[in-house]
Amino acid sequence: MSRPELVAPPEIYYGDIEAKKYTTNTRNQQIQADMTYRALELLNLPPDEPAYLLDIGCGSGLSGEILDEEGYVWAGVDIAPSMLEVALEREVEGDLFLQDIGQGFGFRPGSFDGAISISVLQWLLNAETSHPTSSPPHRLTRFFTTLHSSLRNPSRAVFQFYPSSDDQIQLITSIAQKAGFGGGIVVDYPNSKKARKVFLCLYVGGGGGAQQLPQGLDGEEVEDDGKARFERRRAREKTKSGKRKNLKDRDWILQKKELYRKRGKEGVPKDSKFTGRKRRPVF
Amino acid sequence: MVRLITHNLLACHVKGCTSNNFPLEFKDVQVVVRQSEFNPDFLRGFIAKIEWTALVGAARELGDTSLPEMQPETLDDDFLHTLHHVLLEIHVEEGVMICPNCKHNYPISSGIPNMLLAEHEIG
């Protein structure tokens, strides 16, 4: 399956049906929640200080819910009306805006204490029309410059996104730097195909010394319980001797035969005391 | 859910509209009041960001005159409660926000303002 951003622009891709699907999918919910927590961690806000955050591409409020739980006041912007509708139904606390982030923000300077954005930036990398204001570099420039001015000094913005090539990362970071941001890319689980996550950590203002870019998580995909997630396969029981228990035991055979009889299959052998018994090498 | 907290941060972002583009004026509004949790620490932190005259003006437009004309020096509990009500409990559900400079209309429907611009308005 190709990436959704290659299929259609976001406001069309996330129509009513897709928005519902996306929000009710528990796997999506889990992934979004994990990434939101990680983004908040990278945001490194001072504790015990209720902050006002911007959720860029808030969608149906999956990440916003986490912000609510953590006690932040937030505002969210998204371009897909269907997603926002779902967010309204879910009664999230934040203020929602229907806005194209590629057109820039109109917030007053210093409005927000931080910004997070989960799985959004890649949507800015495709041109929808040939108009000059619709080219990715132009939209990114507009986005980063207006975002930079609407953030407080010092503060941070953390973006999780799915780049499809190094060129895209290069493009995004260079434009962000031109817009005045410091910082760079943090990659979690760089050697894993599944758990690899790319975060763009941007800083507004240095606050004296240069801010240290946080380390990406490393090592094996150690997810919280140490197990691969979503594994539903039945583990085969082992007997004491370490041998696998035969799954096709007497009960199973009887059940199968019963089934065949019910279906009217001819020539099903009769049940007897020999059913399911092993044939000894010597009679 | 346009609350005055966001309205107070919102300026017009149409191309070339850089001065006198704040605050946006309300028109034909329907207001709903919803209770929310009182958080004095957040308000104390947030008060520095508020454009006071714009907030008082917007609150008057919506028919709430509980805020004083001048920002008080001391933040007592009564004042914080009033501020909380004005900032976080008054929701504009339907209506239009109009930029005082370029007269661009931002329609609000079911609490969500439409901030999309036409192609020629993008900066």
Describe the structure.
The complex is a heterodimer of chains A (283) and B (123). With 283 residues, chain A is α/β, with parallel strands linked by helices. Chain A is built from eight helices and seven strands. Chain A folds into two domains: 201 residues, Rossmann fold, CATH 3.40.50; 39 residues, no CATH class. In chain A, strands 3-2-1-4-5-7-6 form a seven-stranded mixed sheet, sandwiched between helices. With 123 residues, chain B is an alpha+beta fold. In chain B, strands 1, 2, 3, 4 and 5 form a five-stranded antiparallel sheet that branches. Chains A and B meet through β2, α5, β3 and α6 of A and β1, α2 and β5 of B.
Secondary structure blueprint with pairings:
The complex is a heterodimer of chains A (283) and B (123).
Chain A: H1 10-13, H2 16-24, H3 26-43, E1 52-56, H4 62-69, E2 73-78, H5 81-89, E3 95-98, E4 112-118, H6 136-150, E5 151-161, H7 166-178, E6 182-188, E7 197-204, H8 250-263
Chain B: E1 2-3, H1 4-7, E2 25-33, H2 40-46, H3 52-61, H4 77-89, E3 90-98, E4 105-109, E5 112-113
Antiparallel strand pairs in B: 1-3, 2-3, 3-4, 4-5
CATH level 1 name of the largest domain in chain A:
Alpha Beta
Radius of gyration of chain A: 27 Å
Number of helices of chain B: 4
Strand content of chain B: 15-25%
| Approximate strand percentage of chain A | 15-25%
How many distinct folded domains of chain B? Answer: 1
The count of strands of chain B amounts to: 5
Overall shape of chain B: it is: globular
> Level of helix content of chain B?
25-40%
Throw out a few tags for this protein.
heterodimer, A: 283 residues, alpha/beta, Rossmann fold, 2 domains, 7-stranded mixed β-sheet, 32% helix, 17% strand, elongated, B: 123 residues, alpha+beta, N-terminal domain of TfIIb, 4 helices, 5 strands, 22% strand
